[in-house]
Write a structure and sequence with these properties.
It is a single chain. The chain is an alpha/beta fold. The protein is built from ten helices and eleven strands. The strands form three sheets. A seven-stranded parallel β-sheet has the order 3-2-1-4-5-6-9, with helices on both faces. It is globular, with a radius of gyration of 19 Å. Bound molecules: NADP nicotinamide-adenine-dinucleotide phosphate.
């Protein structure tokens, strides 16, 4: 049995579907199981379920679903119930090439969680993706409403990764031997700017979309509404400082899964409906 926390999230949902389709016993965790919309073959339980880890040998750990101060206890419960291997969705900000400000809240959050997993004594695999392609959903409202997108840093570069490519690596790390102690750095196949991403979404929709650059100060109030504002400010600051250099591109997705990472254009095709297409 594999327990997937954040089982309705971008990565957790894709992973749960993959494991269920592969015939694996999978238990996804959601605060609202009745609304989860996951495959029938997957069990769906609430985070406070007494038997959360019953019969489980592996755990996919998604941090938003587990407050940091509760993580050691959760890992202890998992181990006591028989879990032996944790695959954790971390972030490329940990151990990134070049200088990373270790006071950066996103760095601290993920680095502390990695340390808690190391300290647990369980076998671990860290997935360290850089920017997710799904971050582009931040523009969905504007794209449904018109042909221009207002946002900061038109030329900032990233190598966005498809959530199902992260899930595919997680699936292999959970099911195949040899991933214990590995920290997999994950990216999409190549660099693309914010303006190019908006144009690619336009091509997927058969529309011409334009990126209209606004100042970081203006963006601070509206960007990533679900994220704490100190994290948004840290993201804007690090993008201003480092976001125009060629981004890290790895071949980890292909090495681990045997299939190359999908390009942003393919992600946009897969998500046409999210943009009103
Ligand atoms: N976005 C990026 O560019 C990026 C880059 C590197 C790393 N990451 C990592 O990836 C994670 C995001 O992964 P994702 O996109 O798959 O997640 P997501 O789609 O945002 O999913 C979050 C899931 O966690 C569950 N959850 C439980 N408790 C929660 C709470 N208190 N607040 C919010 N959600 C809660 C929710 O499920 P229910 O509502 O069903 O309970 C939700 O489906 C980040 O936390 C970060 O660690 C992201």
């Amino acid at each position: 049995m594999i327990v997937v926390t954040g089982g309705t999230g971008n990565v957790g949902r894709a992973l749960t579907v993959r494991l269920a389709e592969a015939g694996e016993a999978v238990r996804a965790v959601s605060r609202r199981p009745e609304k989860a919309g996951l495959p029938e073959k997957a069990e769906v339980v609430r985070p406070d379920a007494d038997d959360l880890f019953a019969g489980a040998s592996k755990l996919f750990l998604h941090l938003q679903a587990v407050p940091g101060d509760e993580l050691p206890a959760l890992l202890g419960r998992a181990e006591a119930a028989g879990v032996r291997h944790v695959v954790m969705l971390s972030s490329g900000i940990v151990g990134a090439p070049g200088d990373v400000d270790e006071s950066h809240p996103i760095h601290v959050w993920h680095a502390q969680a990695e340390q808690a997993v190391r300290d647990s004594g369980l076998a671990w695999t860290f997935l360290r993706p850089n920017a997710f392609a799904v971050n582009a959903l931040q523009w969905a409202g504007q794209i449904r409403a018109g042909d221009s997108v207002r946002g900061p840093f038109a030329g900032a570069l990233s190598a966005p990764i498809h959530e199902d490519d992260i899930a595919a690596v997680a699936e292999r790390a959970l099911l195949d031997p040899g991933h214990e102690g590995a920290a997999h750095r994950l990216t999409g196949p190549g660099a693309t700017s914010n303006a190019e991403q908006v144009a690619a979404i336009g091509r997927a929709l058969g529309r011409e979309l334009t990126f209209v650059e606004v100042s970081a100060r203006e963006a601070e109030e509206t960007l990533f509404p679900g994220m704490p504002r100190d994290m948004v400010r840290a993201v804007l600051k690090s993008t201003a400082e480092h976001g125009f250099a060629p981004p890290e591109v790895t071949d980890t997705v292909e090495r681990v899964t045997g299939r190359p990472a999908r390009a942003f254009a393919e992600w946009a095709e897969d998500h046409r409906a999210d943009f009103g297409g």
